[in-house]
Amino acid sequence: MSLELTLRERFLNNRPGTAQSPRSTLENKAWAMCESGDHFWMEEDLYKGHAYTESESTDELDGLNGSSLKTFYTEKGCHFSGLVTRRRKGGLIVI
């Protein structure tokens, strides 16, 4: 089963214009781009909260002699396909 078919089945009832799930014009536009495989719209703050959510996460690796390496990320998750992008914000070493 292809990814495209899975997405179509998953969001069949959430299509723009259906009576079951009314959406704003902004959400409809984002959904159409998502369905076509384009997620560049997630870079624009205009869609934040409407079509994607943003969160922060931290990864921690143990180092030598009790030190640790912490890396901080920003994650954006598409409301329609579940796609999550992860961007490194920075990191530090804790001694």
Observed structural traits:
35% strand, 95 residues, alpha+beta, elongated, single chain, 20% helix
Question: What does the model show?
Answer:
There is one protein chain. The termini are far apart. The protein has a three-stranded antiparallel beta sheet, with no helix packed on it. The longest helix is centred in the N-terminal third of the chain and has 11 residues, at 25-35. It is built from two helices and three strands. Residues 1-6 have low confidence and may be disordered. It has one domain. A hairpin with a 5-residue loop joins strand 1 and strand 2. It is 20% helix and 35% strand.
Q: What's the layout of helices and strands?
A:
Elements: H1 3-10, H2 25-35, E1 52-62, E2 68-78, E3 84-94
Antiparallel strand pairs: 1-2, 2-3
What would a concise description of this structure say?
By secondary structure, this protein is an alpha+beta fold. The chain contains 2 helices and 3 strands, in the order ααβββ.
Total strands: 3
Number of helices: 2
Helix content range of the residues, please?
A: 10-25%
State the distance separating the first and last CA atoms. Answer: 49 Å
What's the number of structural domains?
1
Q: What is the N-to-C order of secondary-structure elements (H for helix, E for strand)?
A: HHEEE
Structural class: alpha+beta
Unreliable stretches covering 5 or more consecutive residues: 1-6
Output the radius of gyration.
Answer: 18 Å
Oligomer: single chain
How much β-strand is present in the residues? 25-35%
User: What spatial order of strands do you see in the largest sheet?
Assistant: 1-2-3
The coarse overall form would be elongated
Average pLDDT figure: 82
The largest sheet, given as strand count, sense and whether it forms a barrel, is: 3 strands, antiparallel
